[in-house]
Give the backbone structure.
Amino acid sequence: MAKYRKKSVVIEATQWFKNGDHPLDHDPIDIENPTERDREHYYDYLSTEGKVVRYYRHTNLDGQTICKKCRRKMHDHGWVDTLEGGHIVCPDDWIITGIKGEVYPCKQDVFEMTYEILGSWNNDSTIPRPNIL
């Protein structure tokens, strides 16, 4: 049997801890020099569902149920639509953007064994969370 090595691919990834953590979940707000619009939409910015990682919802599962993978309440989890269907996102999972723009979660230990950092997002691309009001 022949052996194969996976081709080197560069991906983008961000670690997820709670709703709103992914940099593309919300329209950016300028924390340093907030506009009136930024101030008006700040609470929406913090409370709305993300565009990449959404709230975890399941009709047959109470939010207080404990996750079998990370031992935290399901209320603390997110949901990502992937090419293979949806996936639960546990706090500490990495959200990877693949070479075709697809997103999927990856567990911390698998991420560390598979990827190494090449660089990081520009500071202007990150979304800080301090209170601007």
Observations:
- Confidence is low (pLDDT under 50) at residues 123-133.
- The first strand starts at residue 12 and ends at 15.
- Helices lie at 36-47, 108-114.
- The first helix runs from residue 36 to 47.
